Amino acid sequence: MKPSSKGRFSRYMRVRMANRLFKYYFLFSILALCFVLGLVIFFIGKTALLTFSHISFAEFFFSFNWTPEEDHFGAAAIIVNTLSLTALTLVLAVPIAVGLAILIAEIAPKWIKNIMRPVLDLLVGIPSIVYGYLGLTVLIPFLRRLSGENLGDGLLAAALVLALMVLPTICRISDEAISMVPKKYREAAYALGSTRLQVMMRVVIPAAGRGIITAVIMGMTRAIGETMAVVMVIGNTAQLAKTLFTPASVLTSNIVMQISNVEFDSTWNYALHMMAFLLLVISFILILFIRYLGRKGSAKA
Question: From the CA atom positions of the chain, what is the Rg in Å?
């Protein structure tokens, strides 16, 4: 009896020690991640706020004159371009992505689902520079011929490239949300005499609404933060885009094109950090919104 009891005790102790070890390891990992993220936010925020010791808050956010060589640091045009590009991207991508998700989840036969889902997963993983290269070599010449413009660069080219990039993300998350709607909802609607279209439009899509909204926000987050593909097709000129074919610049492209050419301790550098800080704030707001939707959905369930 003694060896058997000792063996069980030893196994119990090993399991207990392993659980404690993993518990402290995961806790350390989470704390380390939070510490690093906190340092990033602190460093960028601290440097960004130095902008307003040299220029006014109103000049940075409301002036359209971004000529750092002449000490003008108005970022309004770049901020407006960023919001316009994101909105145009979502207008182009969301209807197609959600429609495709409904087709895959509700209408398509199983063999089409088995083809479409891996293809979309593959498209999500393609590096952004590949999309940018295709935009530069295929899309922009096409837009030149179509519009008659000398340059095809601008918001439309960037929005089309971004729409192609975010479409698989929105589609796959929406597909998962629609597929997770309980079967009993559909059966109850059919039992009440609803048609297939009515079931999809009035039962399935509203039930999957939070998941679809989350998908759209995830796509929006990627569109706002994308850099390389946008740099290659938008024209990189710090001016307000008055037409879809006006070469322009957004927050990400402006930062990446200028950050390597500025002095570290200069207003120009601080202003670029403020642009990066704005991107961080926008991303955090969107992530918090997603978390809020998730908790609300869990509470209702």
Answer: 25
